[in-house]
Amino acid sequence: MAVFELVVSGSKVLRSGPSKIVTESAFVTLTHTLLGNTDGLEIQFFTKPITDAARADILENGARELRKSDYAALVLFLDKNHQVWQVNLSYVVPGTTVARTVAWKPEDLRQFSNYKFDGKRLLLKSKGLYNESGEEERLKLSWEVDVNLPVFERIKK
After folding, report:
1. Can you give the pLDDT at residue 156?
2. By the 8 A CB rule, do 16 and 29 touch?
3. Which of 16, 66, 91, 139 gives a 20 to 30 Å CA spacing to 60?
C-alpha cells in the first residue's frame, strides 16, 4: 500500500541514518479545519491492520492509539474544486518525528498528479522525494503510495 523512507545525513536533533516505514493499512478522513477553514484529506498510514476499535479511535480520537507505533501521514490541502495545492508529510518512528511541506510549487505537485477525489473515494498514486539540505538539517524523505480508499468525515466534537 505504501512505503516511506527517511535518510538523515546531518541534524542537531534527529538521529543520523536511514529508517523505513512499510505500511499495512491506511485510512482517509476529510477535514474542513486545516489552516483555518481549508478542506483537506488526511491519509494516515499504519504498520498494523485497522480493526473496528482502531477505526473508532481514528474517527473519534485522531488515531491516538495507532499513533503509538510507526506511522506516516499525508495531508492533501484542497481548493474549492478539490484540486491539491499543498501536501504535507509526517513521518514518525520511535525517537524521530519529521513533518514537512513536501509539495506546494507546481513542479513538486506533479508528484501528486495521479490523484482523483470524487467526494467519497480517494485514488492516489504517488512516488516522490523531498530533499532538505540546509545548514541545520540534511535529510531526504521519499514515498511510494498507491491507495484506492473510501473517505470518511472526521467526527466533530
Report:
1. 57
2. no
3. 91
Q: What does the domain layout of the chain look like in residue ranges?
A: 21-130+148-152
3-state secondary structure of 109: helix
Cell numbers for 41: 484529506
- Residue type for position 29: T
Tell me how far apart the alpha carbons of residues 9 and 13 are, in angstroms, rounded to a whole number.
12
Indicate the SS3 state at residue 10. strand
| Chain mean position to CA 19 | 16
Q: Give the model confidence (pLDDT) of 81-131 as tens digits.
A: 889 999 999 999 988 899 999 999 999 999 998 999 998 999 999 999 999
The owner of cell 499525508 is 74
pTM of the predicted model as reported, rounded to 2 decimal places? 0.88
pLDDT tier for residue 54 given thresholds of 50, 70 and 90 = confident
